[in-house]
Design brief:
Helix content is about 70%, strand content about 0%. It is an all-alpha fold. Helix 1 runs parallel beside helix 3 and helix 10 runs parallel beside helix 12.
C-alpha cells in the first residue's frame, strides 16, 4: 500500500493493531504504532486508544503511560485501558492514583456524570469499585455510595479497607445502624486497621450503638486521638 503512495485510514490501522494483538506480534505492533503516531497522521482518540490497548496487552505499561500522558483529550476507554493495565500489571497503587484523578474531575462536574463514566468502564477491578464508592461518600451522596456497595457485593467483589471505610461513613451519614452492623461483618478480618476501626466507632456512636462502640474501643490494639 505504502509503495503505491497510499495512506492507511483509521479502520485499516485498527485492523492491523487487532491482528498484532491476536498474533502477539510486538515488533510489528510497534511499527504500526509508529505510523499512527507520526508521519503527520492526524491522531484521533479511537486510534490512540487502540494503540494503548495493544501496548497494555503486550505488558508494555511504560508505553501505555507515555501515550496516556501525552493525549490532549481522554475518554472512558482511555481511562479504562490505563487503569486496567496498571491493575493487571500488579501496579494497583497507580491505578488508584488514576482513579483519584477521575474523582477530582467528578468534583468539578456532577457526581452523576462520574457514575455514568464508571458504568461505561465495565471493569472487573475492585480498586475502581472502591474509588467510585469513595467518590460518592466524599460528595455526601450516601444513598448512591451504599447502592454501589450493594452492586459490588452482588457482582462478587471483595470489599477492602478503603471500600469498607467509605461504606461505613455512608451508613453514618444516613443513620443506618443495622446496615452498619451488616458492614461490620466484613470488617473482622481487618480488625487491626486503625482507620477502619475509627470509622466503625464513629458509625456506632452517631447511630446510637454506644454499647457496640464501647466493645470495639476496648478491643482495639491501637488507638489515636480520633478514637
Amino acid at each position: 500500500m505504502e509503495t503505491h503512495g497510499l495512506r492507511a485510514d483509521c479502520l485499516t490501522y485498527a485492523e492491523l493493531i487487532k491482528c498484532c494483538i491476536a498474533r502477539n506480534a510486538v515488533k510489528e505492533g510497534r511499527i504500526v504504532a509508529k505510523h499512527v503516531c507520526s508521519n503527520g497522521y492526524e491522531r484521533g482518540l479511537f486510534l490512540i486508544n487502540n494503540v494503548m490497548n495493544m501496548y497494555a496487552k503486550f505488558g508494555m505499561l511504560g508505553d501505555v503511560e507515555k501515550l496516556f500522558v501525552e493525549m490532549p483529550e481522554r475518554n472512558v476507554v482511555s481511562w479504562t485501558t490505563m487503569i486496567s493495565g496498571y491493575s493487571k500489571g500488579e501496579m494497583g497503587w497507580k491505578a488508584l492514583g488514576l482513579f483519584v484523578l477521575i474523582d477530582v474531575y467528578a468534583k468539578w462536574c456532577e457526581v452523576s456524570d462520574a457514575l455514568g463514566v464508571f458504568d461505561e468502564m465495565r471493569t472487573g477491578d475492585s480498586i475502581v469499585w472502591s474509588l467510585i464508592i469513595g467518590t460518592f461518600a466524599q460528595n455526601n451522596d450516601d444513598d448512591e455510595a451504599l447502592n454501589l456497595f450493594k452492586r459490588m457485593k452482588r457482582a462478587g467483589f471483595v470489599a477492602h479497607q478503603v471500600t469498607l471505610t467509605s461504606t461505613l461513613r455512608a451508613c453514618t451519614g444516613l443513620g443506618l445502624l443495622e446496615l452498619g452492623r451488616q458492614v461490620h461483618v466484613h470488617v473482622f478480618k481487618y480488625n487491626k486497621d486503625l482507620i477502619l476501626n475509627n470509622a466503625l466507632l464513629d458509625m456506632y456512636c452517631k447511630c446510637g450503638g454506644l454499647e457496640d462502640a464501647n466493645t470495639i474501643f476496648s478491643r482495639m490494639e491501637e488507638k489515636d486521638v480520633i478514637s
